[in-house]
């Protein structure tokens, strides 16, 4: 009997210990499997079933202060209700604002950014109605349906500004922890190359705000004392620019908000030693000022600023992004060249090609090198077009206009055809999705025919990569050829 009591006590002890272990072991919520289940139900047309599981996930993420899963779940909820509930946009906006009011760091910043997105989307979708409404002064309107354009944009501005509050804390949060939310990392594990230029949560949210404030359409209010970016100081070197005290009375100036956020991002990366992020941000700043400035000398100022950057960062692979931007300027200038009018800009495409080649040869695996290779391929491509007059006199030579690029010689073969054959060719075209294949078959068809005339001409080509025009004489042809 005594032995039985001992055994019973030992068993009871083991049960208690196991029970305590089961109580103390944390229950890990399997987000990945829940997301796959939610996606599966949604794809099978069962949004209500998906919503039940999503709500469970949402509550769990909120309780754990798991920003990634929380924001992702909130966005998915909006997706599920978008087409299933009347006035879903306004309900989603109200829910988002309620969540934001009670959220902590960094959920609050994320939610502010998302609410800013929602207001801006509402403005874009309703701009014409909003712009026709009269502004109401000194009166609180809670219903967004009664707001005018200025009120909607005012809210967008405020929420985007709030999204980068507490910048020092945001700068300490590595963006890698947000892969699941930013690029569907749960499924494909792919991280975009550009992620290295946004290393922190601050960078991510700041550039989302900059994207909004860079929108020229948004600035609907134009005060007399408008903020402008005409001063060359805004294209000074990064260190000087980062120390600027930029102020304005123009509270609706999108240029002002964009340039001040860019200044703060550049100031941050000047101090943290991240060269890739610094160069990318500084290039965004210079390009933004160049596009926004009304200074008559802005192109030369921009080119000088870019060249100074290139000289400073030439030992880094990221310098190829600078080379690419410089080449872009010359490529755009080269597009202004008009043969026979002026030689201005004639050699600019060749300069752009040379800049890109040097960069691509120096750091062939860099992001900027890939951009430069695309520019080189476009500039080096061959093209030719022959234009004939609608009617030509038979048995007499006639002229054709040849427009060509990077072509040294043209070979002509004139064959006899008929209207019926041409109509058949046009009908056949409707059955092709691949123009290159169609074109190759047309060439093959006519190449098999016996020629009426064949000849070749040499075209002047000095290697400037520009399109040129010249006239070519076609020998006399009989009627119908």
Characterization of this structure:
- Mean pLDDT is 87; it is low at 1-25.
- It is globular and about 85 Å long.
- It has 21 helices and five strands.
- A three-stranded antiparallel beta sheet has the order 1-2-5, with no helix packed on it.
- The chain is mainly alpha-helical.
- It folds into three domains: 31-291, no CATH class; 314-380; 383-474, no CATH class.
**Succession of helices and strands:** HHHHHHHHHHHHHHHHHHHEEEHHEE
Which blocks of ≥5 consecutive residues have pLDDT under 50? 1-25
Assembly state (oligomeric): single chain
Count of discrete domains? 3
Please render the helix and strand layout as text:
Blueprint: H1 2-24, H2 31-43, H3 47-64, H4 67-82, H5 88-102, H6 107-125, H7 127-132, H8 149-162, H9 167-170, H10 179-182, H11 185-188, H12 201-213, H13 238-242, H14 254-272, H15 275-292, H16 298-313, H17 319-334, H18 348-362, H19 367-380, E1 383-388, E2 398-405, E3 409-415, H20 419-429, H21 435-447, E4 451-458, E5 467-474
Antiparallel strand pairs: 1-2, 2-5, 3-4
Helix pairs in contact: 2-3, 3-4, 4-5, 5-6, 6-8, 6-12, 12-14, 14-15, 15-16, 16-17, 17-18, 17-19, 18-19
């Amino acid at each position: 009997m005594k032995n039985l009591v001992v055994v019973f006590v030992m068993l009871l002890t083991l049960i208690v210990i196991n029970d305590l272990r089961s109580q103390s072991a944390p229950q890990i919520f399997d987000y990945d499997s829940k997301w796959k289940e939610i996606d599966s139900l949604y794809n099978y047309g069962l949004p209500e079933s998906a919503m039940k599981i999503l709500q469970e996930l949402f509550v769990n993420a909120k309780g754990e202060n798991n920003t990634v899963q929380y924001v992702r779940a909130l966005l998915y909820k909006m997706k599920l209700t978008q087409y299933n509930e009347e006035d879903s946009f306004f309900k989603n906006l109200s829910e988002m604002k309620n969540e934001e009011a009670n959220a902590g760091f960094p959920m609050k910043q994320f939610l502010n950014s998302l609410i800013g997105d929602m207001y801006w989307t509402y403005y874009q979708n309703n701009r014409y109605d909003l712009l026709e409404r009269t502004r109401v002064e000194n009166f609180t309107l809670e219903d967004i349906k009664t707001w005018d354009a200025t009120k909607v944009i005012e809210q967008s501005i405020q929420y985007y500004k709030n999204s980068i509050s507490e910048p020092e804390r945001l700068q300490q949060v590595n963006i890698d922890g947000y892969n699941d939310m930013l690029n569907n990392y749960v499924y494909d594990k792919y991280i975009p190359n550009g992620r290295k230029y946004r290393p922190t949560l601050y960078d991510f949210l700041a550039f989302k705000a900059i994207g909004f404030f860079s929108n020229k359409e948004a600035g609907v209010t134009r005060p007399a004392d408008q903020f402008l970016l005409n001063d060359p100081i805004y294209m000074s070197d990064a260190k000087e620019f980062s120390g600027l005290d930029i102020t304005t009375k123009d509270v609706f100036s999108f240029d002002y908000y964009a340039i001040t956020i860019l200044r703060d991002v550049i100031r941050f990366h000047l101090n943290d030693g991240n060269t890739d992020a610094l160069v990318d941000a500084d290039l965004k700043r210079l390009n933004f000022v160049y596009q926004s400035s009304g200074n008559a000398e802005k192109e030369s100022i921009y080119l000088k600023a870019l060249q100074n950057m290139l000289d400073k960062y030439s030992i880094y692979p990221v310098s190829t992004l600078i080379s690419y931007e410089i080449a872009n300027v010359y490529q755009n200038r080269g597009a202004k060249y008009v043969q026979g009018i002026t030689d201005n800009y004639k050699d600019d495409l060749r300069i752009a090609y040379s800049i890109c080649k040097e960069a691509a040869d120096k750091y062939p695996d860099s992001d900027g090198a890939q951009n430069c290779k695309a520019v080189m391929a476009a500039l080096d491509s061959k093209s030719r077009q022959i234009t004939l007059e609608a009617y030509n006199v038979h048995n007499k030579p006639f002229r054709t206009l040849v427009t060509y690029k990077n072509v040294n010689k043209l070979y002509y073969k004139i064959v006899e055809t008929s209207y019926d054959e041409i109509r058949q060719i046009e009908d056949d075209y409707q059955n092709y999705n691949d123009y290159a294949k169609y074109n190759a078959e047309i060439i093959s068809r006519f190449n098999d025919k016996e020629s009426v005339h064949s000849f070749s001409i040499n075209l002047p080509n000095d290697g400037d990569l520009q399109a040129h025009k010249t006239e070519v004489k076609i020998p006399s042809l009989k009627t119908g050829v």
